[in-house]
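Sequence in, structure out.
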Amino acid sequence: QVQLVESGGGLVQAGGSLRLSCAASGRTFSSYVMGWFRQAPGKQREFVAILSGGGTGNYAESVKGRFTISRDNAKSTVYLQMNNLKPEDTAVYYCNAIPLRPWGQGTQVTVSS
């Protein structure tokens, strides 16, 4: 069973940056495809970025060029570097493996204008 713990969220002004982290349990983390998702108030959870064990990331159009997903397999951790943040990026951010496992608690990102 994979357990996921997200951290690194906070309040930031538009144009600022944040780096989210997601620590995952599991002895075979390096083989997991990992992704980041987000859920804004009143909206459905949506895909943000995905990264295979050793490949390049794929991104939602809304974050392409601003967000970067990466991973450290030795630490069983996946990251999301978010630059040039916009108010519309405000959401609770979640990580998960693919296929999806039980969701963690997420981390709140709030971008003020």
